[in-house]
């Protein structure tokens, strides 16, 4: 049997097309077998919203957390608004991760007057420099034994995921998270806040003690002055009475003398 060149070419083309179809089929099957990303199903504290910020927290305190409270601390004009901590009582087991939402108050996210262009420019950036992302919160946790700890000035822009721990030496709660430079801990910042608070309390106690001592010294001075004044008054009255008695005796003696002269 003789195969012409055209026949050979046709056979080669068919073989190539079959190989391409087989490769294409393998590629399609490989793409279909790629694992799909599944969102974590986490216990959620708070609710998502237009201006809400969120972060994942891992409980590594060594105990279940029975209460979590969030209070905003970065308000521009806190005296104009009532700050009410938002509390959640869903039990949070040790070692578990939860998703926490926080909603900054309106004055924190509203653009300042005359600064719309600046705020618009920040909003067009990566979002990390906006006033919204600069909002700070105190996060207070209560453990199963009733002990409470506060994480101060937490920024939900620090990381997508943070871990809560308790320092045994200082009994302070702190956060640990990872950024581009490695692991970051807020323990030193919490210690600085604690030391500053203790210094403030000591200064207020010292000022109160000094004010009390000054008040007592003034009261003693006034009492001494009043006592001295009363003593001086008593001396003057006694002298006056003595003088009157003496004058009366003199007058009695004069009367007697007159009587004697008259009788003669």
Can you put this structure into words, describing what you see?
By secondary structure, the protein is an alpha+beta fold. 45% of the residues lie in helices and 23% in strands. It has 4 helices and 10 strands. A 6-stranded mixed beta sheet has the order 1-5-2-8-9-10. β6 (136-143) and β7 (148-155) form a beta hairpin. The longest helix has 77 residues, at 187-263. It is elongated and about 110 Å long. The N and C termini lie far apart (204 Å). The model is unreliable at 1-12, 77-81, 109-119, 121-131, 238-250 and 260-264 (pLDDT under 50).
List the helices and strands and how they pair.
Layout: H1 5-33, E1 43-45, E2 53-59, E3 65-72, E4 86-88, E5 97-102, H2 106-109, H3 116-123, E6 136-143, E7 148-155, E8 161-167, E9 172-179, E10 182-185, H4 187-263
Parallel strand pairs: 1-5, 2-8
Antiparallel strand pairs: 2-5, 3-4, 3-6, 6-7, 8-9, 9-10
Summarize the structure.
This protein has helices spanning 5-33, 106-109, 116-123, 187-263, and strands spanning 43-45, 53-59, 65-72, 86-88, 97-102, 136-143, 148-155, 161-167, 172-179, 182-185.
Morphology call = elongated
* Total E-strand runs: 10
| Overall pLDDT | 73
Unreliable stretches covering 5 or more consecutive residues: 1-12, 77-81, 109-119, 121-131, 238-250, 260-264
Share of β-strand residues:
15-25%
Report strand order across the widest sheet.
Answer: 1-5-2-8-9-10
CA distance, first residue to last residue: 204 Å
Main sheet overview: 6 strands, mixed
Rg over CA atoms: 45 Å
Query: How helical, in percent, are the residues?
Result: 40-55%
Give helix and strand order, one letter per element, not per position: HEEEEEHHEEEEEH
> Given the structure, what is the number of helices?
4
- Given the helix and strand composition, which structural class is it? alpha+beta
């Amino acid at each position: 049997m003789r195969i012409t060149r055209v026949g050979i070419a046709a056979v080669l083309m068919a073989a190539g097309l079959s190989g391409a179809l087989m490769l294409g089929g393998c590629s399609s099957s490989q793409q279909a077998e790629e694992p799909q990303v599944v969102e974590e199903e986490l216990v959620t504290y708070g609710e998502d919203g237009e201006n809400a910020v969120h972060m994942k927290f891992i409980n590594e305190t060594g105990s279940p957390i029975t209460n979590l409270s969030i209070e905003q601390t970065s308000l521009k004009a806190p005296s104009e608004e009532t700050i009410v901590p938002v509390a959640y009582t869903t039990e949070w087991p040790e070692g578990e991760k939860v998703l926490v939402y926080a909603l900054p108050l309106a004055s924190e996210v509203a653009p300042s007057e005359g600064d719309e262009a600046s705020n618009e420019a920040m909003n067009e950036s990566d979002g990390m420099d906006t006033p919204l992302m600069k909002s700070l919160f105190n996060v207070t946790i209560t453990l199963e034994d009733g002990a409470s700890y506060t994480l101060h000035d937490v920024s939900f822009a620090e990381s997508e995921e943070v871990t809560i721990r308790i320092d045994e030496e200082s009994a302070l709660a702190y956060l640990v998270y990872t950024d581009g430079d490695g692991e970051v801990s807020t323990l030193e910042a919490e210690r600085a806040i604690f030391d500053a608070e203790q210094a403030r309390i000591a200064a207020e106690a010292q000022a109160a003690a000094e004010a009390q001592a000054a008040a007592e010294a003034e009261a003693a001075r006034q009492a001494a002055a009043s006592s001295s004044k009363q003593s001086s008054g008593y001396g003057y009255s006694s002298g006056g009475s003595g003088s009157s008695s003496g004058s009366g005796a003199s007058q009695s003696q004069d009367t007697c003398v007159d009587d004697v002269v008259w009788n003669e």
